[in-house]
Amino acid sequence: MSIVPKETIEVIAQSIGIPNLSPDVALALAPDVEYRLREITQEAIKCMRHTKRTVLTADDVDSALNLRNLEPIYGFASSDPLKFKRAIGHKDLFYLDDREVDFKEVIDAPLPKAPLDTAVVTHWLAIEGVQPAIPENPPIEAIVAPPDGKKMDHGKDDSLPIDLKLPIKHVLSRELQMYFDKIGELILGRADTPLFKDALLSLAKDSGLHPLVPYFSYFIADEVSRNLNNLPILFALMRVVKSLLSNPHIHIEPYLHQMMPSIITCLVAKRVGHQISDNHWAIRDFASKIVASICRRYGHVYHNLQSRLTKTLIHAFLDPSKALTQHYGAIQGLSALGPSVVRLLILPNLETYMQLLDPEMQLDKQKNELKRKEAWRVYGSLLLAGGSCLYDRLRLFPGLLSPPDILPWKTNKKIALTNLPNNKRKASSRLTAHQPPTKKLAVDPTGTNSQFPSTDGPATSSSSGSNPNHHHSHNSSNNNSSSTGNITNANANINNVSGSGAHGQRVAVSNVLRQAWKEDLDAGHLLSSLHGLFGEGIFSFIQPAEMHCFI
Amino acid sequence: MEEEVEKAVFAYLRKKGFRLTEIALQEEQTRLSSDASSLSRSESDAAKYYDGYGKLRSWAYNSLDSYRHELLRVLYPVFIHCFMDLVAQGHMQEARTFFQTFREDHEMMHLRDLQTLEGILSPSHLEEMELARLWRQNKVKIRLCQYSYELLVQYLHKTQSLAMLGVINEHINFEVYPGQPASMSDDSEAVSLIGTSQDLAREINQKELHWGLLEDSVEERMEKTLSESDKTEVDGNKEADTEDNNKKKTDGNKHSTAVNNKKKKDKVVGATGKTIRSESSMVSVPPRVKPELTLPQFPPEVEQSILEDLRNRVQLNSLALPSVSFYTFLNTHNGLNCSTISHDGSLVAGGFSDSSVKIWDMAKIGQPGRASNPQGENGSMQGMHSLASDEAKRPYSLLQGHSGPVYSVSFSPFADFLLSSSSDNTIRLWSTRLNANLVSYKGHNFPVWDAQFSPMGHYFATASHDRTARLWSVERIQPLRVMAGHLSDVDCVQWHPNCNYIATGSSDKTVRLWDVQTGNCARLFIGHRSMVLSLAISPDGRFMASGDEDGTIMLWDLSTGRSVSPIIGHSSCVWTLAFSCEGTLLASGSADCMVKLWDITSSMKALKTDDSKSGPASRLRLLKALPTKSTPVYTLRFSRRNLLFAAGALSAGS
To answer: Angle at which helices B300-311 and B238-259 pack, to 10 degrees?
Structure first.
């Protein structure tokens, strides 16, 4: 009846040298043992509470025994909880692992390190009720944004320690102030040093930076508008934005609306950087990536974020009065938002836009070399946008991808392989989009879109004339001509080819193909229209395996 | 019938003269009856309790909705007494099964008691255990409405369950009141039904209580100067007048200290007190009371510094939350038992389980170089002074003297003295200037769990495992008063701001308020469900907060003795509580590594508006929860300028 069975009493009796304990005694003792145990436990819990702990230790039991004027049980005091081991072969028999200690070992063992002495450190758990996100405080998932009124206007100078008691002011610790000043100095002065890299890393990782976010967003907005012609600073600022966005401890949503204008400025500004030689394309690309990542991450929080952004960009894109650089930025921004955005917003306007762009790209119509170069840029970015959209479409239909392993196709592949170096170059140039598209695409000005072989000749000549910078890219165009001709034919007659195939396998494949094309006719249209506008350049966006299908 | 037959048989036998047959028959009869009765009793007693209680329980649970909660209240005492009856009659096994079967019902409300009572396994334990004795010796009082009572009586008559009837008659007093049953929320009254304490509590809580603030306190004088300077502003010659006033006042102080003529002082003070009240009558100013103890006077420079602090005090309310400065103890190796922070936050003391007390001066920690400098200068003397330099290297002052774990430390109001209480049954007074032990106070017979300096210094109160709280003055080694009455350990003690009362929290789940002059219990607060660990009294002296082991915080109205609002504030022990200086906020620190800030004013307003109705519906509003990094919060203190200091030991490994 007691939780202490009489067998336990008997075992204990034996262990202290009473071999024959009568069962009656054991039975009588058992309940009392339980009672005493409970009593001691109760006192031990009191001692535990008064040592401000929530875990009962052997010390507490000793104190409890002391309270009752009993001898404490020696030998169990330890800071760790005791580990009981289960006896092998017995289900509920446990024992304490009590190793025998060899004196020699103990003597030979090096002295343990002296434990560290107790120390007291202080930190701010809260400042006027708000927990500063310093390492001493636990990381907070979502800090409530401070009300709008308190953050911007005071800039750096209001960040006095907390003696300042106006409840509206945002209080910044001295450390954070120094940190902020240092980062600002790095951005404006020494953005190329390794120190700046470390700073970016710290911005992306540190947990305590949340109080600084409003200051940073203000700082960025301010500096972007002031330094539009200073490319290195803009770059540094954008990198800071990127780091801040990637910091998991910062709750940046409330400040996005302040940061977005600066980023979009970098994306679609008319002039960025004061020298012609400045690579302002790079910062536009970078900004477009940031914009896209913001949309991806916070699009669900701010449902109108992307719509507002695309509206801004499409306005920039469709306004013919805007500079080509702005168009470029807009296209880059839109295409970074994903292929579906491109399909919905850019492609419908592509044809009209190309008509606009065409004269700009031609040597005879646009005399200003700089302008022409810009036009080629825009052309490249459009191609990239359309191509990635196409690529995405095709990717959705993996049935198209299985390359039919038939002999003629293999030979075709060989031919394609011969083009490889050239194709590669094209691809790389397009991917980075830093160079105008290859001259072969320049055939388009002639307007004869579908007939490649016929345009080959003029294309070479025109490009060599108009783009001296990119001479090198296409000396092998003649090699290509045969294969490109094949490709065009294949493309034009795709259904015929697949239908007329004499091989049984191919019929099956072509059926699948036809099905797929039916289901997604617009992809086919897409391809053809893109091909119409860009010519062969678009093919580099089709995976090799898919190419087979078209060839 | 049978008896008549028997009588007839006996008569017949007697008439016939069959004497031996008669005797044999008689013998047989007695044997039979005793056999039957003993058998049936031992067997059926246990079963009777079991069945009877089971039926009563299902009946109570199936009773009418509006009366159910009242009837359920009856179950717990019946349950306990059934169990004890079974134990007392020696049916150990049955008692155990009975207990285990029905235990669940009461676990939520009375877990602690159940755990204690579960250990009772023999009649002798009933005698030994305090709680059991209390239950046996006292009647439980239960308030029932008229109809509930009738229902219960009807049920007991109808079912003829004599065991239940017996238990209820023997151990429960019903207090029947007319009208509708009380609402559920009043249930808290029924939680702790220990003996006559309910009656006692009501009786005690009828007593008059002067909860107001002290006359002639520094705050009051501050208000006075303020109002006077306002007045003189109107007059135009502000400065000269206030100066004059100040001079007068300090003169007056000196005078009173010198003469120490209490009567005279009181007269002066009474007059000023009246003017204050008339001036700021629109604000609810707590009433002023006279000190019952002879209180020490603050030296003028100290008073000046207090006044300075009061002027610079930040107003806190639900919108303006305090700043919290946290003192983290590192490398305590689980040895820190308690800590305290001086009023200005410059000194932090910790009491350790290795019997030591350590004091950190935060001003010195800021400049670590200073401590090590002299060592370098005295390089040649290093051998001789190695001990001294070792002393100097330490960033804290180590106070050694106790011979057992130190359970509490408390600074005097101006941090020139420190009290520590220990499991060696003593309280020691240390000087923080000399870093030396001044006095050891012996009087308690068991570990002293808590010691607190009075708000004015000079006096202190202690709480001990010996179930008493004691009042001491620093200059006597014997206690001035012994407050006895708690039924279990006194775990914490706190002074009322007017120094006329001390509050104690105990393991018997009650909080008591004691009059320091008479040593009598002035208030008894029943409502906690586990050991009370922390107490705080609002600066206006009207409210008291108490925190317990389960994380519940209760707020009490001292004047009525009623609970204002029980809240489940934390998920673990509430180690510490503190009111902000205006009493608008309550801060609580807990073992669940949180500091929480509670809005007092809103719940007070709610209280005031429906004071006429039964109040406890209102709840404290949580303003802010500040988690720490795995650091349980041991101590909280608002400085005079309303900066909140907190301290705790970093618990490694968690």
So the answer is: 140
